[in-house]
Specification:
Oligomer: single chain
Order of helices and strands: HHHHHHHHEEHH
Radius of gyration: 18 Å
Helix content: over 70%
Low-confidence stretches: 1-12
Number of helices: 10
Strand content: under 5%
Number of domains: 2
Shape: globular
Length: 215
């Protein structure tokens, strides 16, 4: 435990206030841009989109959770402290959700209230989840368990399975899961394999305990 806490203190690097503001503003702007882009795809007829976007089904991919969880994890673990991880992820989701539903209300002309409540709830709990996720890139058993938990969540958001069948939700979700494994990789190959195997086992356990998936 002492080594774990020491690693946390070492990771709390100091950067200038100006750089902190610029980094956080860039993350918030990214959320705003992705929110607008997602809603733009939603309101564009499928046959008017480029062929590649149609083939990859990007519109539905952005409407599911895997990519957003992956982006939040990336923002979390590459933030310079757990507090900044919480702030950065919250502003990312706040920008994304706000721009998405402002576009929906004032340009598309409708407001899907029930769906909006889900995303608003997710945004409100995102700082706590980001705070916890930040510690997944440390050393020791606690970090390994957290990493495996993240892999488990991405696994259940990327694949559908049951007795006698296993399938990917889409090519993009499969790529998202693989990218998640790369981002969360441990210092050694053995550690990474253990993380992925533990994450898969946790995913199956979660599927039994909580069969509802945020797909």
């Amino acid at each position: 435990m002492w080594d774990f806490l020491n690693n946390i203190r070492c990771a709390e690097k100091k950067i200038s206030l100006k750089r902190q503001i610029i980094n956080t503003a860039a993350i918030a702007f990214l959320g705003i841009a992705l929110g607008v882009f997602s809603k733009l795809l939603d309101t564009t007829p499928g046959n008017h989109l480029p062929a590649l976007l149609q083939y990859l089904d990007v519109t539905n991919f952005l409407g599911r959770f895997a990519i957003w969880v992956f982006l939040a994890v990336c923002i979390s673990i590459y933030s310079l402290s757990s507090i900044r991880a919480a702030l950065n992820v919250f502003l990312f989701f706040a920008g994304m959700v706000l721009s998405y539903y402002l576009y929906s209300t004032f340009i598309a002309g409708f407001f899907p209230g029930s769906y909006a409540m889900i995303w608003m709830g997710f945004t409100m709990v995102s700082p706590l989840l980001a705070f916890i996720c930040w510690y997944a890139k440390g050393q020791g058993k606690v970090s390994l368990i957290l990493s495996a938990g993240i892999i488990a969540v991405l696994f259940n958001m990327s694949f559908v399975y049951g007795p006698g069948y296993f399938d990917s939700r889409s090519l993009l979700e499969t790529l998202t899961f693989l990218c998640g494994c790369v981002v969360m990789k441990r210092p050694s190959v053995t550690g990474t394999v253990i993380m992925i195997a533990t994450g898969a086992a946790l995913a199956f356990a979660l599927d039994i305990a909580v069969p509802f998936r945020f797909g």
